[in-house]
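User: I'm putting together a teaching handout on how multi-component assemblies are represented. Below are the sequence lines for each component of a complex, exactly as they appear in our records. Could you produce the 3D structure of the whole assembly as structure tokens, so the students can see both representations side by side? Please keep the chain order the same as the input.
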Amino acid sequence: MKRITASLAAIGLLAGTAALADYPEKPITIVVPYGAGGGSDIMVRTVAPYIEKYLGDGASIVVENRTGASGIIGWQAVHDARPDGYTIGVITTPSIVTKPIEGKAEFTWQDFTIIANMVTDPAALNVKKGSQFKDIAGLVDYAKENPKVVTMATGNFGGDDHLAGLQLEKLTGAEFTFVPFPGVAARNATMGGHVAVGSFNLGEAVNYQDSIDILGIMADKRSDLAPEVPTLKEQGFDVVASSQRGFAGPKGMPDEAVEKLSAAIAQAVNDPDFRKDAQNQGVVLDFADSADFTAQLDAFDKAMRKIWAESPWLE
Amino acid sequence: MDLFSPLLDALPAVLTFPNLLAMVGGVLVGIVVGSLPGLTATMSIAVLLPLTFTMDPLVALGMMAGIYNGAMYGGAIPAILLRIPGTPAAIVTTFDGYPLAQQGRAGYALQIALLSSAFGGMMSAIAMMVLAPPLSLVTLAFGPPEVFWVGIFGMAAVAVFLGEDLPKGLLSALIGLFIGMIGLDPVMSTDRFTFGQLELESGIDIVVLMVGLYAIPPCLEMAEDTARAVGARIRLDFQPFLKTIREIPRYFRIWSWAYFYGIFVGLLPGASGSFVSFLAYERAKRMSKDPESFGKGNPEGIAASEFGNNADNAAALIPTVTLGIPGSSVAAVIMGGLLVHGLQPGPDLFRNSADIIYGFMIQMFLTSLILIPLGGSFATNLFAQVLRIPRPLLIPLIICLSIVGAYCVQNSLFDVWLMFGFGLLGYVMSKTGLPLAPVALGVILGPLIESNLRLSLLLDVRNEHILFTRPICMVLIALLVLTTVLPPVWKHIRARRARAA
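Assistant: Of course. Below is the structure of the complete assembly, with chains in the same order as your input.
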């Protein structure tokens, strides 16, 4: 009896390995936790054919939008899916890290199998063309002399734009008045001159430089997307903030699936055709494999928990 | 700004085969749905919208444009033949349409309605082409304080145009404002009325709401009178179409007034085609040498009403595509459709998706134009027979499409239940005579007013009372006072004079 069980187990094991060697054998569903037509959705739909190409063997990808509650509904669906490598999802910072900190989600980012990062869109400070502010130092000095007078358009409170502004406040002691505009409205408010400065990502700003000036990006180095735009670091302000978009699956995904997906995403990101599409859409490509992306998430998580403990960004 | 080159750039895409097919199909569906009493343009676009999610955006919009313009004419068919307005906007058409039909001139009445609808729609589309692009550039000057006042203006317009049913209309608007509050608050992201349901955090989707409110009640009402006899075969006697076309110059003056009212009312959020019809009809009656003949079968009455309710069509889309503030309930659904395709109203729409938005304006024009051949004698004869379809047969079809529609918006079964909930609400409301349109506008305008008020207060860092001191705000406040305070005062003065005399 014992021998039969053992051999059955062995067969099972063999079958398991055989199945994974052929991964993917059926369509892979990528859950996008935001609406069709939004930034994350367009990114996934643009990259999907390239990932299919590099997975090879007629692999196919189905994009499924599960919207609601700032991404939590979609992520919960990925979290609860079978970890067989056929359901994965898009994860985005800061929400995947901050929503659990805010106590709005029943999971944390550690409850997922991290596959790879694809986009790191640095936070940027932008002003209307012809604004009195020409650089970050000028903006910070003015905000220090006139506390709360400088209005800064951001996305939702607790989003990356707002957190970026808060980090700058913390570093310099300047005080801004944050005004949360939904979606692209922050850019329109900046272009219309309704706010003094707009905090929105480089990807949202780069194609609008005929009406706005980008004062600086919050990244370690300049971006390929706009090499002429200086970083805040260069200007003497050590603030790094960004919005990342990557892929993750349910916890316990087979290593083979993670490796194959990660390799295919890496190849897609280096595909010249895809790079051109990305440039036109203002997508800042930045591949990081599972280990690197996990380390980045971990560092960000620690930093956010520290801020939350000292001064929560939501009341 | 160069007006014609973006239109010309967009033209080739509009003239592709799938697009033409979508427009023709849309117009046919629109005429059929419009001719079925109880089924409105809002309902049919809301129900068919999800079928367009996977389409190319322009094809999807072509279909919506077709349904919109088709339904506005379709409503005239039962209005003339049976004195049942197929859509609310066709109520005025019954005044002279039905008497003409009784005199055996139903065919002629339908031809007048068709030509008036088609020209009204085309002229309205031209107004949109001329006004929307420059307005979209100006909208950058509209910050939170200005948008706040436009929203208030919209809510006030809802109240003013409700007329006699003011308390009921206000109650409907309040229901809408309440529904609009569900979800996270726009500034501090605090949960409101979500009862811990994650699905409710992002608020109620406008498409789910509209499908429930507009599609379910007619089904229940149709089920109630299944026993109602089906009409006999209807014969229409047409005069040669060319002869009717030669009569067009006779209606120019009436059409011009209807056009003016259509564009003006269309631009106002909250007022709709039915109101334009009333205004245009009253004007035609006052201008006529023989006002007594109105209501007894004067074709000029039909011309005014039908031109008016189509002249409102594209005009109502102008604030929708430039400011994201829909001018009517149909426009609200079309805005939902734009958002599903990732097309955010505002200057970006004209900048980044010029082909689509200019294409859409051409489609609004073309679908009005193809109304003439599609709605011509033969087809109108055929559509008149649609009225003989036992209406209960439509119930399962509409309910199936509604379920699919509500599910598809966010792939959420929760939304299906929500849709049925709104369906019941809509049923109770229509039984108690509460109008539906103010609900939709409340849901859209409420959050818009609230968030822009709060953003304005945040922005007012120097205590300059920016809500009242910015120039555009002052103009909007003046308009607001003119449209809401003056009419009742004027009415009061006239009433006193009448009593004195």
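A couple of points students might notice: Residues 8-19 of chain A have pLDDT under 50 and may be disordered. Chain A touches chain B through 39 residues (CB under 8 Å).
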